[in-house]
Structure formats: structure tokens, C-alpha cells
């Protein structure tokens, strides 16, 4: 009769230690905030290395974008007279769309761009898309300051509804962009065509949300009760843009310009959109966690 060899079980870890290689998703990221700060600093340093203007590009890029759209849409298509003050209407939409575009674009490329770190050490891989969010917020704040100054000059006075609308819009964009960025960033490791697809999405995003024109224009084209209009109105990106219009443009606009310019019940729609985007964030994190097991081999 032979003796059975007992299989040794995993030894218990001392207090304060965790077994490596087990991912808890985004929870792990915020448990290692110091490492996250290092990655954000690295991203900013690499981006502006040997750059003459440095962080000033946060003003230059949206500034040029604003001037071009203001000249074309405001003068050629008459939006200056239709949506006064059109400068505030236009720039508030540009600011929130740029936040979405930067997060999603950089998050999609973040894992591939940091392939050397992925192959060398174990760390929560979600840190790379999350760092894209923080870098985008660094660029978002200067644009928001410019928007605030312009809105104040135009006659804007903040109130509880305006502040709540702005905060709700930012939360929708952060959840939506990070959720999509996690999913696309993970898939992009195996299929690099994804980043090109995302570029196409971002290219048309500003045209398929009411940044350059009022929602009434879309309603007149699609029909108020059409399926396309309902899809357009309930698109989280449309709602985020309209919330920024409600926050910064609406108080300074006259009654005639307000009529039909913002989607109905935008605050209620915003709460629903935030819940949907939160679900998308959870799904994106699950997709990322599942696909991250093969990152080292793919990279």
C-alpha cells in the first residue's frame, strides 16, 4: 500500500500582502494611486518633451478649432444670429466633446503604447486607460477656465441647476469614454485596426452631436417623433453636450434663441444617460479584465 503524497496548499499570506496576478479591475487602480500619479507624469512629460509651447497647447488647439467653426458656422450658415451668444454655445460644446475625444483616443492606444511596461512588470493594466482620463482632465481644466470667463462676459451667472448640469455632463463623458476606452484598448492589443475605427468615430462625433447647430435643426430634418430623432436625443454624447449648453449658454441666451435649442427634459435624460454609461463602464472593465490575460503574448 503506497502512501499518498499530499498536495501542498497555497500558504496564507501575511497581513498587508496580496497574491500577485489577480485583478480586481478598476478597484486595483485606485488602490495604487502613487503608481498612477507616476504614469500620469510620465505621459505628460513624454507628450510635451522638446515642445516649445508645452501645456499651452491646451489653449491653442481648441482655440484654432473654435475660430474655424465660429467663422464657418457663425458667418456662412448664420448661426451667430440664430444662437446668440453663439461663441458660448459653440465653445461649450467643443470643450466637452474634446474631453470625450481625448480620453477615448488615448485610452484606445494606451496599452499598446505602454507595451514595454506590460511585458516587464505586473501592475493593474487598467492604469493605462485611467491615466488617459487624468491627462485629459489636465487639458480640460484650462479650456473650462476660458469657457467660464467667456460665459461671465456674456452675462452668465451660475446657479445650482447650471452647476449640476455641468457636473452631470462631465460624469457622463468620463464614464462613457472610459468604458469604451477600456473595451477598445483591450481589443486593440490583438487587432490594431481598432484605433483607426476609433479615429473615424471621433472624426464624426462633433458633427453627430449638437455642437455646431441647435437640436431644432435635427428635429426638423428627422421629424420630432421619428425613430432616428429618438436615437439622436438619447445618445449620451448628445445629452452631455446639451447639458453643457444648459449650464453655460442657456442663462445668457435670450428667450427666442432658447426655443428648440436644447433637448427637452435634459436633466432627467442626463440622469438616465449617466446610469447607462455607468453600466457601459462596468462592461468595459469586464471586457478589459478578460482580454488582459493575453496582453503579454500579444505585445
TrEMBL record:
Record domain ABC transmembrane type-2: where: 53-291
Keywords: Cell inner membrane, Cell membrane, Membrane, Transmembrane, Transmembrane helix, Transport
Subcellular localization: Cell inner membrane; Cell membrane
Transmembrane in keyword set: yes
Pfam families reported in the protein's UniProt record: ABC2_membrane
Biological processes annotated in GO: lipopolysaccharide transport
GO molecular function: ABC-type transporter activity
Gene Ontology CC annotation, any one: plasma membrane
Annotated transmembrane regions: 52-74, 86-107, 128-153, 165-190, 197-216, 270-288
Membrane topology reported for the UniProt record: Multi-pass membrane protein
Protein name: Transport permease protein
Organism of origin: Serinibacter arcticus
Amino acid at each position: 500500500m503506497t502512501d499518498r503524497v499530499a498536495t501542498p496548499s497555497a500558504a496564507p499570506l501575511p497581513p498587508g500582502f496580496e497574491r500577485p496576478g489577480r485583478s480586481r479591475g478598476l478597484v486595483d487602480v485606485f488602490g495604487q494611486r502613487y503608481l498612477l500619479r507616476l504614469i500620469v507624469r510620465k505621459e505628460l512629460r513624454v507628450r510635451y518633451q522638446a515642445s516649445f509651447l508645452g501645456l499651452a497647447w491646451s489653449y491653442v488647439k481648441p482655440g484654432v478649432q473654435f475660430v474655424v467653426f465660429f467663422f464657418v458656422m457663425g458667418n456662412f450658415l448664420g448661426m451667430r444670429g440664430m444662437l446668440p451668444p453663439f461663441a458660448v454655445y459653440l465653445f461649450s460644446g467643443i470643450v466637452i466633446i474634446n474631453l470625450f475625444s481625448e480620453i477615448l483616443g488615448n485610452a484606445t492606444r494606451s496599452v499598446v503604447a505602454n507595451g514595454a511596461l506590460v511585458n516587464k512588470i505586473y501592475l493593474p493594466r487598467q492604469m493605462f486607460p485611467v491615466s488617459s482620463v487624468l491627462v485629459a482632465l489636465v487639458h480640460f481644466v484650462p479650456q473650462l477656465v476660458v469657457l467660464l470667463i467667456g460665459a461671465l462676459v456674456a452675462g452668465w451667472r451660475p446657479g445650482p441647476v447650471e452647476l449640476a448640469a455641468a457636473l452631470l455632463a462631465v460624469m457622463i463623458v468620463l464614464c462613457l469614454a472610459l468604458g469604451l476606452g477600456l473595451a477598445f484598448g483591450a481589443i486593440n492589443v490583438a487587432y490594431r485596426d481598432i484605433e483607426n475605427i476609433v479615429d473615424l468615430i471621433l472624426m464624426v462625433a462633433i458633427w453627430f452631436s449638437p455642437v455646431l447647430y441647435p437640436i431644432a435643426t435635427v428635429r426638423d430634418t428627422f421629424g420630432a417623433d421619428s425613430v432616428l430623432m429618438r436615437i439622436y436625443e438619447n445618445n449620451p454624447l448628445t445629452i452631455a453636450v446639451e447639458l453643457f449648453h444648459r449650464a453655460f449658454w442657456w442663462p445668457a441666451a435670450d428667450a427666442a434663441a432658447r426655443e428648440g435649442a436644447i433637448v427637452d427634459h435634459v436633466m432627467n435624460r442626463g440622469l438616465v444617460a449617466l446610469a447607462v454609461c455607468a453600466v457601459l463602464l462596468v462592461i468595459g472593465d469586464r471586457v478589459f479584465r478578460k482580454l488582459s490575460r493575453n496582453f503579454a503574448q500579444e505585445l
